[in-house]
Amino acid sequence: MKLPGAQRQPLGEVSPNQRSRVVSARDHGIHYPVIARMEQLNSQTCRSIVANAPHQVSCITPKRNGTPALLTEGDIRLIRRAITINPKITAQQLKVSCADHVSKKTIYRYLKKSGIQKWRAK
């Protein structure tokens, strides 16, 4: 029980180990308020952990992904093949020959990330 005026504990993520303990306790028939007291969590948090458990692999929350990649694996292979054949090819020529659906800047960004610069695909 928290005293009035006491600092509120910062919100944080529940560890995978603690998630698995909550799920296994619920599988053994222990009620949510009892689990919440044992794990020092809110009973609603325990309910949401158990509700989300079937969607997760071993109670580990999946990574939050950003936007999908514009260049596919096939595009990347085509770009690398074209650079191997002609090391002095420009990003504009790569765009026309390999990945017409993306901008020249996207191709240049990929080349820079891959460490391919200077005379190799300038």
Automatic annotation (TrEMBL):
InterPro entries xrefs: Homeodomain-like_sf, Transposase_Tc1-like
Start and end residues of each stretch annotated as Disordered: 1-23
Domain of life: Eukaryota
GO BP, sorted A to Z: DNA integration; DNA transposition
Recorded GO MF terms: DNA binding
Protein name: Transposase Tc1-like domain-containing protein
Pfam family, one: HTH_Tnp_Tc3_2
